[in-house]
Write a structure and sequence with these properties.
Chain lengths: ~350, ~350
DNA sequence: TTGTAGGCGTTATCAT
DNA sequence: ATGATAACGCCTACAA
């Protein structure tokens, strides 16, 4: 049906170069014991024919597929964040010579998505799976680890299984952020956004809330995940005379909700109220004034995970299982001194 | 090294079920001529062992890999847009039972990225390639088509090759948009953003500019791609007394630049000036007032392409090679009647 | 209805 | 330094 002009195989190359398939294989895989002349001749033929070794053949024979599947789950992470993490990881992996498969979405708890995940991981076309917003403690992930799968997780690790690699934004930024908020002079704050919407889990925001309360900030929080409710919560707070004038935003959507609500109420961000971001936020949100935030970078998270995960696949012995990516204080103009 | 508890193969299943491998294969592939009893027994064993057929074995034997690679090129498309399209296509493909590989970035014109593209497409782990922001007329794509590859393109098609499938935002929206802009009362406009930054190519914006000039709008344009220059251009226009008060934005970044510039100049969008979006924009940009735009939806583009591309792979005879996705007028509050 | 056998493309091992 | 061979897991034509 298809008019494929016959993709060349190592046998074709061997015939044209007047050698055996083994020698072709040796050249392709960079073995030493092939004389320069032969090597050159074979490479020329390979180049001329456009020969690319079949990955199926290779993996069947036991080689790695050099491919990692990214599963993104469904727990309230915004498509935007999901897409950004996917692309970031894809870039990191690519730089290390691995391809990235975009896994299906789905609740890791549901039977059918578990089946799909297993299918991808077990069919042999993938060397490892990366789960955004997980801990490694989920039943599915535990099982997969027990079966010898290599798993990467962006989130707070539940326990350090053998082939589990994790990365998270450093939760130590929580204290810094809480103290910063306090130092602005506020005694009340509204937390916008779901603690689940941020890859890296809820460790950072939960810790922030805990510490903030400890040091004397009265924290009001919304657990609502959709953007509409974030907007409504911000609106409500800002329209009340006695509402909080410090808005802590856990994700991009929350930040936008805060700015929009301020605008709608005729309040100036950075003057009449303060907006502080925490977590995985883009460094270049289109906002004015720019956002002040304690942020971790998606690409850095991805880089750390990819480097260690792939290192382990490639047989490196000493690989860190967990890494925390520091949250950097990004100074915008969105925070002002407050009095309540 | 790895402690893989031996992944079961069809031979294992056969042994445990007391049949031959062929029978297992028949059951797995849903052949009719297997008695219900045998089928049930085999399925039970498969379930119990967690058997998943090896994709390598299957493709080696001639089956499809059920996987498509998405290449995103480098021509000025923002990471954000790139990520959104990747995720959108991944979803569409997933719904049709195909996985998506994130291809490497790179200029399709450069020798080394061409090599990488070929490598992925020819190594047998992928049934087709999708190129964001291309036309199918590029040298590389022509060659691939000539070699019998199946190619998908989000963009304006150069010519309808046999196995080339394309989708683009309907450029007919250009006239509508131009007339709308004219009807607002403006006689001058500034076009922000690069015509290359939008998947779907430059057909729509170029056409818009042509028609707008025809019907009497004086169009000033910036060809600069990076966000800083878009912002500068918007700033410059708005700060001049006689600058354009209608900003046409071709991508998300341009929209943000326009809003930010307005804010910085103390002008109110939708009152003192108008912002009109055209092209592939998110329906839910965090802006106030919401954006008025003629927009095409990323997911719709992806759906159309995936459906036809995969249909063709699956052997459907009658498949449209090109489709235009209508641009829908999204009414925000960002446009006001103007006088210049 | 079921089993046998051959081959898809590659590479490790052994023999030369 | 190089070639022959077997095996990876699967599918299917053919035989029984």
């Amino acid at each position: 049906m298809r008019n494929q002009p016959h993709k060349p195989t190592s046998a074709d190359i061997a015939r044209l170069a007047g050698v055996s398939r083994s020698t072709v294989s040796r050249v392709v895989n960079g073995y030493e014991n092939v004389p320069e002349g032969t090597r050159k001749r074979i490479n020329a033929v390979i180049e001329r024919c456009g020969y690319y070794p079949s990955v199926s053949g290779q993996t069947l024979r036991g080689k790695r597929a050099r491919c990692i599947c990214v599963f993104s789950g469904v727990d309230g992470m915004r498509d935007e964040t999901r897409a950004a993490m996917l692309l970031a990881f894809s870039k990191s992996a690519q730089a290390l010579g691995y391809m990235t498969l975009s896994g299906p979405e789905g609740d890791y708890g549901a039977a059918d998505s578990r089946r799909t995940v297993r299918e991808v991981l077990c069919c042999g076309c993938v060397d490892a799976g990366v789960f955004l917003s997980a801990s490694g403690g989920e039943t599915l992930l535990r099982q997969l680890l027990a079966e010898g799968q290599t798993i990467g997780v962006i989130g707070t690790p539940a326990d350090g299984g053998g082939r589990l690699f994790t990365v998270e934004p450093d939760p130590r930024a929580a204290r810094e952020a809480a103290e910063y908020a306090f130092s602005l002079g506020y005694r009340r704050a509204l937390v916008l956004g779901s603690t689940r919407s941020c890859p890296g889990g809820d460790a950072l925001p939960e810790r922030f809330i805990g510490i903030a309360r400890e040091i004397g900030l009265d924290i009001e929080r919304t657990q609502l995940t959709d953007s509409l409710s974030a907007r409504r919560a911000a609106d409500a707070a800002l329209s009340r005379r006695d509402g909080a004038r410090l808005l802590i935003c856990l994700d991009q959507e929350a930040v936008f909700a805060a700015y929009r609500a301020a605008w709608a109420q005729g309040l100036a961000v950075g003057r009449d109220l303060s907006v502080l971001g925490i977590g995985l936020l883009s460094p270049d949100l289109p906002l004015w004034p720019p956002l002040t935030a304690f942020r971790a970078d998606a690409q850095e998270l991805a880089d750390s995970l990819a480097r260690r995960l792939i290192g382990s696949l490639e047989g490196e012995a000493e690989v860190l299982h967990h890494e925390r990516i520091p949250c950097v204080r990004l100074e915008g103009g969105s925070c002002a001194r407050g009095t309540a």
